[in-house]
Amino acid sequence: MAGKQVVIIGAGISGLKTASELYKKGFDSCVVIEARDRVGGRLHTVPGYKNNKYDVGASWHHDTLVNGLFLEELSMPKEQRASFVFDDDALVVIDQEKGRIDQDPDMTLEVLMEELLKYNQLQYFEDLDVKDVNFFETIVKYLYERRDLLTDDQIRYIPQLARYMESWHGIDWKSLSSKCLEIAHQGRNAFVLNYDTIVERIASSFPKGWLKLGTEVISVNTEGKKVVVSTSSGEVYESDYVVITIPQSVLAHSLSPTPRKGRIEFTPPLASNIQDAFQRTHYGALGKVIFEFDKCCWSKDRSRAITMAKSNPEIARKVRDAQELNQLVEKLNSDTKYNFKNGESWDFPLFFVNLAKHTDNPSLILLMADPLTTYIESLPEKEKVYDFFKPVVKEVLKAFDCFEPVVTDFEDKLDETSEGPVLKNVLTTKWTQDPYALGAYSACSPGDDPMDLILALAGSETSKVRFAGEHTIMDGAGCVYGAWNSGVREASFIAEKMGKVRS
Ligand SMILES: Cc1cc2nc3c(=O)[nH]c(=O)nc-3n(C[C@H](O)[C@H](O)[C@H](O)COP(=O)(O)OP(=O)(O)OC[C@H]3O[C@@H](n4cnc5c(N)ncnc54)[C@H](O)[C@@H]3O)c2cc1C
């Protein structure tokens, strides 16, 4: 049995930061055990066509006024930090029939969107006991109550624009909590080029020998004075503290006895407040598809676009004729159902990043939410993925002033004379299929309270079993910098308890 001061489970950003801080504080005997054969976890930079680099996990530094990781990056010489660009310019909004409808002087959808978000927020500010409902229901309620103040077009298109929130939370409007909907942006968003620089920097700020890759932790036993951590390859570690940074989705499997990859057996079992809190939390699945072209034949004016799901031409009449809100919710709910068998890309809101605007890379990055993510990530071939998205990609290119048809050349056989865009490669994330991620990050459905799990996992003043990760913190919840903050928090806690004061 190897003796260590601290065992850290998981080498994502929270685990790496914990190790880095412990080393800074004078710890000299720790181990970071990681199931995958790489560090970074949900930060993962991969090569594509012509070795262009893409982040298939996180891409942005959010909340750059308060983001500690971003501020740490800024404090370093430029050549040592990851480049970034601010890409918050106005969103291009595309409808299947109408084409571009952003900044439309009659519909003023952007202004309405702000009003709708404020309407949602006010409901829960004014009365703490208001029942949490899904975002779809809140939108219908808004339309019903404000119908005399909205035009038919506004009633038709605002629900579809509002679905833009799905790409923040990674779940669809009918699963998304209205109470937890709001994203209070603390500063601009910076698109990182690329996160691998940051992961490598933090991973090399503590001894290499601490890292144990390709090793899955299978059990944590806290019955004795020390914590005993066992791995699937038979190693056993004994330590003063263990910091568990595995994703919420993987930790959830410790609640049931069924063996599976990533699952950790706890002896004694996880505390009852942790088990209870898991009943009031969910997990989203943001996914990405990257379309790599041979050259940029479209406009570089705008960074981002959203293609709205198709709207119902009958919706304004139905809203105006409605006698009762609940009936209207039911009616519109069945109007907006889809199934994947005959579903198509215009059933979903999709978010596009025009990478060519800020880099020399002629690629479009699409972001989607669950349940679409789970479906697309299960498709085995890039041809199938492209077939699904072809209609929207065509309209996005049109909205960016490219009217030539897309030619596909996945085998890279065409010469370079074609005038229009030649699609060379399609990359798709696989987070929902990855046993060490099982999706993207924590999310809230109606009735959830994310604070419960955070307090249950991170609130103990005495436990030797510590938790870190994006799901264990309020400041930066779900984000890279939240995970990073949680690593700082746990390292400080352990250092204080073990009498290490150096920082
Ligand atoms: C597609 C996508 C887009 C995103 N976009 C953004 C964004 O733009 N900005 C942003 O701020 N955030 C974004 N996020 C969220 C962000 O990536 C995460 O919040 C953050 O990286 C989580 O870090 P972590 O350390 O908490 O967890 P992880 O990175 O998941 O680290 C946990 C580690 O534990 C390991 N592990 C699991 N089980 C075991 C086991 N039994 N034994 C040993 N090791 C184990 C895993 O392999 C993993 O490496 C995105 C996430 C995804 C998936």
UniProtKB/TrEMBL annotation:
Q: What InterPro entries does the entry give?
A: Amino_oxidase (IPR002937), FAD/NAD-bd_sf (IPR036188), Flavin_monoamine_oxidase (IPR050281)
Record Gene3D superfamilies: 3.90.660.10, FAD/NAD(P)-binding domain (3.50.50.60)
Superkingdom is Eukaryota
**Do you know which Pfam families this protein is assigned to?**
Amino_oxidase
A biological process (GO) annotation for this entry? spermine catabolic process
Q: Where is the Amine oxidase domain?
A: 13-492
Q: Name one GO molecular function term.
A: polyamine oxidase activity
This protein's name: LADA_0G12750g1_1
